[in-house]
Amino acid sequence: MNLNNTGPAPIKILGVGTGPAHFALATLYYFDALGYTYRIIYPDNSEEWLFRDDYKNLVKHVYPDGSSDRYEYDANDNLLQHIRPDDSTVQMAYDDKDQLIRITDPLGNIWLREYDDKGNLLKEIDPKQYVTRYSYNAQGLPIAIKDAKGGTKKLAYLPNGQLASFTDCSGSCTEWHYDANGRLLSHTDALGRSTRYGYDKAGRIHSRIDAMGQELAYRYDKLGRLTALQNENSAQYRFSYDPVGRLIEENSFDGKATRYHYAEASGQLLEVNEAGQLTQLNYDAAGRLAQRKTGSSKESFRYDPAGRLAIAKNRFSQVAFNFDEVGDLTREEHQYQLFGQSQTHIWQHEYDELGNRIASIRPDGQRTDWLIYGSGHVHGMLWNKQEITSFERDKLHRETGRKLANQLQAQTQYDPMGRMLQQTLSGKTSSNRSYQYDPVGQLLGIKDSRKGETQYRYDPVGRLLAANTPKHQETFAFDPASNLLDSKTESTLPTQTPRLLDNLLKQYSGTHFKYDARGNLTEKQRGEQITKLSWDGFNRLSEVQTAQGATQYYYDAFGRRIGKENAQGKTAFIWDGDVIALEKTAEHTRHYLFEPNSFVPLAQIVSANDSEQEHTAYYHVDHLGTPQTLSDENGEIAWSAEYKAWGEAKTIISEAAKTAGINNPLRFQGQYADEESGLHYNRYRYYDPEIGRFISSDPIGLMGGINTHAYAPNSTEWIDPLGLARKIPSGNDASGRPFSSPQYSIWTQQTIPAEIQAGTREDHFRDANKQLHQEITANPALGDALGKDVVTHVQPGPRGGYADTSPPGLTWHHSAQDPTKIELIPRPQHKAAGPVQNSLHPNQQGGFKKLNCR
Question: How far is CA 754 from the centre of its chain?
């Protein structure tokens, strides 16, 4: 075995630009005689080493911080063991055909796979012995998938192998039609609603026409770059590029111009000018974002030797992170400068061998523990070592039962598609909620034993037209671009409604709105009531003025609101990732507990600051995770709400809850209701429930949707916990995409430069990671939307150059429709059987093969 990688060591310097500055940022790659990388030196002089055996299998990977991954193989070069930096081990086993048949994780959990004689996967068996089965036709295409509960999904194909129809577990059928070149022409759902697609002579998509005949059009220049996006109102969003293909200006639907300036030598983005608001970016020696400045606002960032973000700082806060040897976050120190005083809040976290967080010690010393089985499914939660809730789950690991410490019990039932069908609460307080859906999964009605029946109606593209309850009858109208309109009669027909060409709502139901040049709401007036809003340079709401007085808001370097202050008092917020974990006022401290990796609340614990006595209240939420009631320690209703369609709430609090300090500002997932303004703070933005819209433009731009102020087509099946991009909370595949959909989820898309299009997949992946890193640097909110694993993977970090692999859980996919585009999509979708495969690989051919066969 040759672990020294001796032999010729040619050096390649890879980068963008020319001149001394360019070479100062260069990353050096060392190759052996066969072209395998064995050493990398990065711009900050940190190094990475890769050791291989005689067959060039990677056996040890040493990172700049000294940690390493080790790998062992069998005689057929199959990976047998992956030994992680903390010495925990993942083991694999194979059959005599080199097919993976067993995976054993560090906790000893075992996953099994079985195959037929043709190598098709027949069974997947999880650690609890639950089985998923697959069936195939003579061509080896999957025709049926049977889950552990017996639900079966069926697929049918055209003679050329393209998917013709998909039938879900409920029997609803979706169909697809293609042209002679295998391109998707139309998609028809179970209600007969069709979406049609058109292409130009170069094969690029140029139109999408929805079920109402409304068209979204795409325009390109001679080099194939998107130059204009024309929405359903015929308004245009325009793009301009420099000679090397970098975006230098975009003009949004509301006329706002955003310009980008790059360093001539390194190609790094230096300035973003958004309608006259200039943001300047500075980088460290490794090319990572070190400072972001606009006006009087400044944020700075520092990294540890492994390239992980270690410190984030602005004028109001400094947040520091510490990690263990495998990269799990073990300690956080939040320092605040609020209300004229310093505050320090320290978190400590514990993990199991699989990287699941199993315990946290909160800044005030309170401890939460999560009881976990298998690969991360929760079956209980402890507060200071006392169980406050336990869960029962079915064979698909969905929650079916919940037992609370106040002796209430909740049961949940699902329909064949996995949608919530019924919720039952029993004990001292009882209730029942049942849900009814149409064939495409739209919620038609809710029957609630406490609140009565609610019925919903939609237009052909899924927008909410009516919500009728025993107390409210609401109707809604939209223009073709999905802007909510002020109309007393429901309609979404283009000939009957005006159009908001700039997507800015100026008036609705007697309320008038004004905006600044960046699309931020600055004034809201209804009769004599006027609310004025002020914004900082990062488009964060800094002050609200009403007749009752002014309220100021303060944020950390991640854009999390850490404080608010007005004549009524001061509130400090302490965060756990992207959820508010506790809030402190002069009178009370309130802890919020959420389901793991979720914005769905479980409980709140409240204590008066002059008393050690705690009071616990338990959340009872609907199918979307919206709180409907809270029960107290005696099992009685402490708080309840009645909602209008877009989230306006009328709440009732019991006298006992008032005495205990129990209250609930949580609304739709990720939203916190502010009494002083009527707005809902929604992590990166503020949402107005009176108009069902955000009051500022999306920080991630068009990646969050074509209409950057819209919340969602409806509030009955969509959520947006971060205020960045809507999603359906209960998809059916591992990535959240309904199995009946041919659409795959594109997290981001990059263009493969002409000079490397003939290169390898690794060349393309490396460049795509680089482009994505540059986008995240220019727009940190995008990084938060993509997640820390993606951000860490694509940044050069001390590893300097860019990885030639896809981020964890994702895949860089070469577009089959335009092979010069490479898209970041969820790995489960890339591997999934079903309709999505014909979008990804028409005629079983991907974009990479097309690109290299041109």
Answer: 31
